[in-house]
Specification:
The protein has helices at 10-20, 33-43, 51-55, 71-80, 95-105, 122-133, 163-179, 271-274, 276-292, 300-319, 325-328; strands spanning 2-6, 25-29, 46-47, 61-64, 85-88, 112-115, 139-147, 183-191, 206-213, 218-224, 232-239, 243-246, 323-324. By secondary structure, the chain is an alpha/beta fold. Strands 12-11-7-10-9-8-13 form a seven-stranded mixed sheet. The protein has a six-stranded parallel sheet with strand order 3-2-1-4-5-6, with helices on both faces. β1 (2-6), α1 and β2 (25-29) form a beta-alpha-beta unit. It starts with a strand and ends with a helix. Keywords: Oxidoreductase. Residues 125-244 form the GFO/IDH/MocA-like oxidoreductase domain. It holds the Pfam family GFO_IDH_MocA. Belongs to the Gfo/Idh/MocA family.
Amino acid sequence: MRVGLAGAGRIGAAHAETLKGLADEVVIADADAGRAREVAGKLGATAVDGVDELFSSGLDAVVVATPTASHAPLVIRAVEAGLPVFVEKPLAADLDGTIQTLTALRGSDVPVQIGFQRRFDPGHVAARDAVASGRLGWVHTVRSMTLDRVPPPDDYIPNSGGLFRDCSVHDFDAVRFVTGRAVTEVTATGANHGPGPFAASGDVDTGSAMLTLDDGTIAVVSATRYNAAGYDVRLEVLGSLAGIVAGLDDRTPLSPAGDGLRPSGPAHSGFLERFAEAYAAELHAFAAMVKGGGASPCPPEESLEAFYVAEACEISRRERRTVTIEEVRR
């Protein structure tokens, strides 16, 4: 199997290491050709000068880990070439772009997998299994959070789409994945306390959203760009009989107010470390799909559903009101 990797930045380089063990050959392209050669040289992979060369190199599949603006064009190009494609979230930079991309893909049977890595995180999978088994009883509350250790670079913020679209969209997908339920309405708020240029971009550095699911379950999603104690992603599912939590271990950067268990290991520095196992697992699933066929484990329609929730949250935050998903659905 010959896999092309578009993008050799931080996450692209991590994907390259995993792909090297899954494919017979990995071909890497990046806007910075020198960076592609550097990553390829470390792994014994092949570097090419750009995406045109990448797509003409006899590929069996494509992995897209480029900046967001190029995701949709590369996915469409791969599908038109008949190449199964894995793409980091988001599928497109905004809701309109996502819908336009899905329209362009309509009618094709070439599989597309979206990189919502939490679907492959052992804790989130165990939480989903616990809900499905019924051992938690009926679920009344879900709590999901993403707490960044440090904010993204200043020049990233104006084009990020905002906290809910860029960061919490992972939580929105995780809530849907773990519960198996759809979100019907949201109420969201946000604030700025840190020194970053979020307010100048119409964004917030901290936000929370209350989601109502289609069976009446309440989900609360929280996020911040400032959690210097360490990168912290957890999801709790509370049921009438029992509760379960994903992401609580000896590296969780959280201490009890009184006596109790305290973290014994270093906190995670960021998402690549926290979700290393999940990132590898999603590419293993992609490679298995390419080799054996079958449906995508995370089709692009899932990206759209999570984006609807993020869009509704952003409107709710700005207009200070509850927003239904049907209001933003197109």
